[in-house]
Amino acid sequence: MKIQMTQPTWAINVERLLDTQGRRKDWLAGRLGMHPSQLRHMLRGDTRYHLRPDLRRRIAEVLEVPEGMIFGEGDQDSSR
């Protein structure tokens, strides 16, 4: 049986930024030094994968936007 996951707000923001910049998830995964499937799981909200503070910072750096633009102050999904 497949478990339904709720996509975190930060993940929606990342996907929008990638689309706006004309980039793909596998490009981002490569820049972050992770396997594309790991990034896809994180973006889907898979609770087996945790978003560490250093990864949050790196995602913002790679996408060249302020961290708050992706994660926001009140985004509870980003604290995992």
Task: Tell me the CATH architecture.
Answer: Orthogonal Bundle
The CATH H-level superfamily is lambda repressor-like DNA-binding domains
CATH class: Mainly Alpha
The name CATH uses for the topology is 434 Repressor (Amino-terminal Domain)
The end-to-end span amounts to 25 Å
Secondary-structure element pattern, one letter each: HHHHH
Radius of gyration, whole Å = 12 Å
Helix count, per DSSP?
5
What percent strand? Answer: under 5%
Give me the secondary-structure category: mainly alpha
In short:
With 80 residues, the protein is mainly α. It contains five helices and no strands. The N and C termini lie far apart (25 Å).
Task: Explain this structure.
By secondary structure, the protein is mainly α. It has a single domain, classed as lambda repressor-like DNA-binding domains (434 Repressor (Amino-terminal Domain), Orthogonal Bundle). Helix content is 57%, strand content 0%. It has helices at 9-21, 25-32, 36-44, 53-63, 67-71. Helix 2 (25-32) crosses helix 3 (36-44). The longest helix has 13 residues, at 9-21. The chain is globular and about 35 Å long. It starts with 8 loop residues before the first helix and ends in a 9-residue tail after the last helix. The model is unreliable at 75-80 (pLDDT under 50).
Write the layout of secondary structure elements.
Blueprint: H1 9-21, H2 25-32, H3 36-44, H4 53-63, H5 67-71
Helix pairs in contact: 2-3
Label this structure with key terms.
single chain; disordered C terminus; globular; 434 Repressor (Amino-terminal Domain); 80 residues; mainly alpha; 5 helices
